[in-house]
Recover the amino acids of this structure.
């Protein structure tokens, strides 16, 4: 019994409960100390993640390897930055309650369990823990109609997707006789072929997981939730859960269902094409920045899925690199969106950014960096993300996917440029409020990461390579 | 270590960014920032230019290979290295970029009044990207620099441009990007096929014949837009009309050369079979560009648009020269590119002189300028004649060499090419007559001033350069003679090898 490899998750969950008790029992306003304690807990967990050795535990339910470590670190970083950004916003909007960081924390616990799942049941438990925390977080601004509506939509559609996933799992269990990844892999390798029922089950599992990463055709919740939820929640939902969901998809498809790759690759390819096309076209007419980012993130998930569709080690490496790049671009962009505030009131329309380059050149520069990077223009990091997934697609001979991918990236460039235009080429509107130091810090840090990614991409690529190797090991 | 004894190419490439950082760190009120930014940008670009003269001095013309090579391991496990180097084909383009940048900064000294800091920054970043494009010897690094030019150029057109600047900036960006991403796929296919991105290695690698046509089309998608070739040239007139003067100079002077450079550096040597199979198509596109755009130019009402169309025609000549696959044709194409880089830059600066004074470049708003601006009339006459290829100017050498090359390929090709050249005389002189001669009909022209000393300082080096190239062309052709010889011989050898192998019909 090698339970110690789950120590990061255990520590995070226990500290979550302790902080909760502290928050409840504290006499004075506990929100700031709770935030700091949660940030500390995330940091400690990250260190523990690095320190834990590889292995299986709990009768094969739980696995730790280079892949899970890579993804967990990325999730923790994403959650930490999102939490930092939430501090000032929540205080401004009167949302500074100590439950908020704890919801984030429990959601992170769920994600870490998902990433380490070696069994469909563990996978499901982690997923539910993550989603339920997020449903509550989306409704956090409970006096706001938009926030409640967003949470309700998220909940209803999320439950539907979870139902599909469970149905798929039960079909897989019924036809293969196990829910363990290792046993499933062995069952699929057995001579005599695979029963059609199992394939149907896998399709349902994919459907459930695709909801997680909000790819077409399970993307419908994304724009409404992104727009309606409080901005820090959107910041969080758009980064870490995407990583976790994508990681889950990679592990599930590559490890137990790797034998069926001929069956699911076409499906993933269609999902990827659909997401890229929808992300590119639907975003063009958006005027709300958060809603536009929702469509943009659908498109980005389409690009990340190219790597999975290629179904090779290089493909998975490409997806992982894309996720790293995406998380930092996305968080940086939302640092800017959180700073969009005029005379104390937050605004979300792109047209409100008019002439930002004149009134706040630093913020405009940061926005421009993230926008050009998302459009995939070198030498910014977004280009390298696309480079590695397209390389995988070319290697796998998926020319249609690659050509559609690059062409949609040109269409996508249009709406990113449109925002640059608003900031740099339109007449200045009234100046925005002073940025808080935390927003400036996050925007600068992620901006530097995005700009100078090419300088230190070597170690990141190597880590992604090691992580991808595990799944094909 | 390279011939210079120090990493000269890296210095030339990245020094502008250092200057940019200095400009970013300037503090103070808007006037101080603007003035300091101008001087910092000018000094940076002048130092870079002086440094690039090292290339001129130390370049060994008898060596057809790459010189001043620098190599730093970047991601060795994927065959990616940071490799810079120049050969006879690229060295003069590097010099062209470094020479035009200070002129551009000088030309925008007074006319750019708002966001000067950002303007100068954009030009310095653009210089880095341009030099990097011409000197990178790794395909991915090349692509990074090549695409990287889009960001500063988009901002230059979009922020400091004319009334329709936003439409033009978007058109420029999206057109170019659409071509370039297909180039990226072709590059990735080569990477996958050969496992290396090192350009010197790839130049001597034989790619499968079945792949070559597809790769050629991928390359062409990007280079044809950049060059620009008919029918994907429509972004250019818009971009030129709206761009500020210096932006037009950079666009016509250097960015268009990316297309011709790309064809000559990558398409022809790496894909010899596809190049010779598709050469007739390229000739057709080239002839179309020369003749069609010449007629279009005749009908233009806007000076910048007219010169933009003349650029398309000149680049058509370059296309034909590159695909003749003989020494004269290729040399002529190179000469034409360098010459056009100088002459079209000068013509746009000439238009800029009028625009600075009258804030328009509509031809009908001028006329009779010779009475008020005799010196300007002389300068414009000089560059107009250089553009149409008067013997003694740089334009002549390029055109005559391409003509000789084309004659060796096909008489009719040469005839059509010559027709286009004659038409070019028509539209350029027609432009000159309408702007300079006649009587002054517009009252506001009566007070127009002749060239200022600053403007003379901008034009003087260009005049010298044009005459030098026209009178003593061999001091330029000697740079690339060996490299061109090498490319042509290699091409002929490759193609005859394929004939022998029965892969191509005779």
């Amino acid at each position: 019994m090698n339970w110690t490899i789950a120590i990061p998750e255990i520590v995070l969950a226990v500290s979550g409960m302790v902080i909760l008790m502290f928050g409840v029992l504290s006499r004075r306003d506990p929100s700031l100390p709770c935030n700091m304690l949660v940030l500390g807990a995330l940091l400690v967990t990250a260190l523990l993640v690095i320190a834990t050795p590889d292995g299986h535990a709990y009768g094969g339910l739980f696995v730790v390897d280079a892949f899970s470590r890579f993804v967990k670190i990325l999730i923790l970083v994403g959650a930490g930055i999102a939490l930092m950004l939430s501090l000032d916003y929540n205080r401004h909007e009167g949302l500074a309650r100590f439950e908020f960081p704890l919801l984030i924390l429990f959601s992170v616990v769920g994600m870490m369990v998902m990433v380490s799942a070696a069994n469909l049941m563990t996978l499901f438990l982690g997923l539910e823990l993550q989603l339920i925390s997020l449903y509550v977080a989306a409704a956090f601004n409970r006096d706001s109609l938009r926030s409640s509506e967003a949470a309700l939509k998220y909940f209803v559609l999320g439950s539907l997707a979870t139902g599909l996933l469970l149905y798929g799992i039960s079909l897989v269990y019924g036809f293969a006789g196990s829910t363990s990844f290792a046993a499933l892999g062995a069952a699929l390798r057995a001579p005599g072929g695979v029963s059609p029922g199992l394939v149907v089950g896998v399709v349902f599992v994919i459907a459930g997981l695709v909801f997680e990463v909000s790819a077409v055709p399970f993307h419908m919740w994304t724009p409404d939730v992104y727009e309606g939820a409080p901005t820090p929640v959107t910041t969080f939902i758009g980064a870490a859960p995407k990583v976790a969901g994508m990681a889950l998809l990679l592990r599930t498809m590559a490890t137990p269902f790797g034998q069926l790759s001929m069956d699911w690759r076409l499906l993933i390819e269609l999902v990827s094409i659909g997401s890229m096309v929808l992300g590119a076209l639907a975003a063009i007419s958006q005027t709300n920045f958060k809603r536009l980012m929702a469509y943009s993130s659908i498109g980005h998930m389409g690009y990340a899925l190219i790597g999975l569709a290629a179904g090779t080690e290089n493909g998975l490496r490409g997806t992982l690199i894309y996720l790293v790049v995406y998380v930092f671009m996305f968080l940086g962009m939302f640092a800017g969106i959180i700073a969009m505030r005029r005379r104390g009131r937050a605004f979300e329309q792109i047209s409100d950014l008019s002439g930002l380059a004149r009134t706040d050149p630093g913020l405009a520069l940061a926005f421009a960096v993230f926008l050009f990077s998302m459009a995939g223009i070198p030498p910014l990091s977004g280009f390298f993300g696309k480079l590695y997934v397209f390389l995988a697609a070319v290697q796998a001979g998926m020319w249609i996917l690659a050509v559609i991918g690059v062409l949609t990236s040109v269409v996508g460039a249009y709406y990113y440029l449109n925002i640059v235009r608003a900031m740099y080429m339109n007449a200045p509107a009234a100046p925005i409020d002073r940025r808080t130091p935390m927003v400036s810090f996050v925007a600068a840090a992620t901006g530097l990461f995005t700009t100078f990614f090419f300088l230190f991409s070597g170690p990141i690529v190597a880590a992604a390579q090691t992580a991808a190797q595990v799944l094909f090991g | 270590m390279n011939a210079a004894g120090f990493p000269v190419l890296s210095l030339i490439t990245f020094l502008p960014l250092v200057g940019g950082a200095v400009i970013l760190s300037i503090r103070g009120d808007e006037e101080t920032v603007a003035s300091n930014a101008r001087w910092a940008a000018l000094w940076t670009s002048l130092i870079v230019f002086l440094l690039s003269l090292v290339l001129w001095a130390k370049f060994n013309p008898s060596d057809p290979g790459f010189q001043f090579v620098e190599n730093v391991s970047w991601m060795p496990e994927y065959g990616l290295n940071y490799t810079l180097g120049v050969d006879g084909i690229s060295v003069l383009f590097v010099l062209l970029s470094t020479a035009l940048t200070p002129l551009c900064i000088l030309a925008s000294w007074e006319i750019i009044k708002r966001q000067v800091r950002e303007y100068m920054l954009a030009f310095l970043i653009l210089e880095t990207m341009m030099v990097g494009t011409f000197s990178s010897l790794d395909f991915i690094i090349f692509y990074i620099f090549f695409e990287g030019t889009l960001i500063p150029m988009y901002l230059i057109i979009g922020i400091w441009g004319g009334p329709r600047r936003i439409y033009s900036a978007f058109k420029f960006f999206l057109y170019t990007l659409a071509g370039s991403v297909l180039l990226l796929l072709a590059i990735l296919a080569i990477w996958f096929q050969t496992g290396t991105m090192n350009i010197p290695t790839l130049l001597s690698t034989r790619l499968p014949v079945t792949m070559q046509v597809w790769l050629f089309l991928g390359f062409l998608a990007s280079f044809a837009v950049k060059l620009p070739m008919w029918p994907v040239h429509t972004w250019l007139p818009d971009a030129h009309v709206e761009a500020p003067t210096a932006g037009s100079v950079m666009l016509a002077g250097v960015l268009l050369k990316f297309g011709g450079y790309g064809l000559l550096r990558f398409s022809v040597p790496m894909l010899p079979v596809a190049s010779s199979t598709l050469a007739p198509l390229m000739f057709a596109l080239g002839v179309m560009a020369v003749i069609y755009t010449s007629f279009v130019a005749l009908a233009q009402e806007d000076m910048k648009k007219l010169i933009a169309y003349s650029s398309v025609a000149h680049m058509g000549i370059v296309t034909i020269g590159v695909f003749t696959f003989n020494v004269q044709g290729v040399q002529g194409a190179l000469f034409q590119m360098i010459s056009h880089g100088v002459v079209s830059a000068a013509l746009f600066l000439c238009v800029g002189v009028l625009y600075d004074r009258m804030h328009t470049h509509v031809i009908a708003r001028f006329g009779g300028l010779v009475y008020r601006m005799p010196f300007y009339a002389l300068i414009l006459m000089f560059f107009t004649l250089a553009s149409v290829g008067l013997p003694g100017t740089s334009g002549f050498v390029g055109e005559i060499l391409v003509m000789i090359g084309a004659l060796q390929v096909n008489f009719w090709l040469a005839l059509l090419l010559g027709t286009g050249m004659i038409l070019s005389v028509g539209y350029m002189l027609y432009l000159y007559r309408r702007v300079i001669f006649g009587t002054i009909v517009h009252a506001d022209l009566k007070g127009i001033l002749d060239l200022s000393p600053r403007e003379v300082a901008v034009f003087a080096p260009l005049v010298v350069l044009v005459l030098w190239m026209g009178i003593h062309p061999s001091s330029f052709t000697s740079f690339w003679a060996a490299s061109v010889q090498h490319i042509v011989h290699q091409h002929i050898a490759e193609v005859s090898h394929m004939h022998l192998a029965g892969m191509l019909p005779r």
Q: What stands out?
A: Strands of chain A lie at 55-57, 62-64, 341-342, 345-346. Chain A has a mean pLDDT of 90. Chain A touches chain B at residues 357-358, 361, 372, 375, 377-379, 383, 387, 390-391, 394-395, 399, 402-403, 406-407, 409-410, 413-414, 417, 420-421, 424-425, 454, 457-458, 461-462 (CB under 8 Å).
